[in-house]
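I hope you will forgive my troubling you with a question about protein structure. I should value your view on which stretches of the chain appear to form regular backbone elements. Here, with my thanks, is the record as I have it:
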Amino acid sequence: MSRYTDSSARTMIAVLLWLFAASGAQAYVASVTGTATPGTVSYNQASSVTITWRLSLRGGSTIISPSGTFLGPGVIGTNNKSIAQAPSFIVNPNIVTEVLLVPSNVTYAANKNGQTQITYKRQFSNGSGAPVTGTVTLDIGGSAGTGFLNLSRVELKFDTNEIVHVAAREETLRAVAEINYSGSGLLDAIWEVADPASTLGTPVFFPLRTIRQYLGAGRTAILQSPPLPTTIPGNHIVQLKIRRPTVAYELPALQYNVNAALNSISPGNLQVITLQAPGPFALLREDTEFRWQEIPGARAYQLEIYIPGNQDSRDIPPESLETQTGSTAPRTGTPPVTGILIPADRTYAQLSMPSLKYLDPARPYLWRVIAIGENGSVLGVSELQELRTP
């Protein structure tokens, strides 16, 4: 027998088996799976995707699907284009290809609901059996005209314009995120905070507020957190966790300490912290290491840098730089221009690049260290010592 005759025989056998199954048992669609290419649609703009449906059949006749539905959640749109296709007697599963136009109002409605995805579903049947539903999931991306959303920079600070802060109990404090971006699309993020129960080890964050906001025209977005918790004394960490779009770099976090006795500190009750490095009038560089004396009972240290002559009258007497350098009064007024919060097991630190960028070149600054106790109280403070930027 030639290979052509053999092939024809196999085809005939397959047809006979199909007809036998169709006549001897109920015809139905056993299963449906779908894939979409591409898997992303544009926000607020019509998009075209190709969906490949794979249907496993058990006998039957014409494959029928009357319409499709967009979900996001709930019904947010309908595709009234029907599908009717003759089944294959040879290949199973059967392939049904659909070119789908996703209207702009569908992605707009999904975004308004706070969704980053939409679901498209169809029901298929080819006989007396119940219809079987197939679904595909489509991500919502940037508009086709401007490209997908890309976050080039995320900067955090407090609404006091600080990147570290010591807060009184019940003080109203918020974090502010400045985001530089290109393209357009949906930003999906969560403001999160870790309280003192976990910040001395591995921080455990809990959500404060979810943000789902479309970023369109423009290159900068400003987001403000809800009021941060300031009832529990101790060290807190706040961050903006970005879930979408994907960010390839490490996102910043802010630290603040709730000090139950911030407004009732007397300098006479404080221990004096001895500064060890850098020396007076040192030149500040990227690798400059700050060192200081350990204070028993400290749960954290805060390194602060001030502009000379820019302190509140309750903080440092506004006389000469030499007089200011000898002051040990705790901060209660004008905030430092930058700083960093350090765990108690370290009595040394280097300023990070985000902290250094707050300092202007070729000018003097003052720095000092504050020791913070278990209940958020200030245990000690160093003198203010001058350093200069190159």
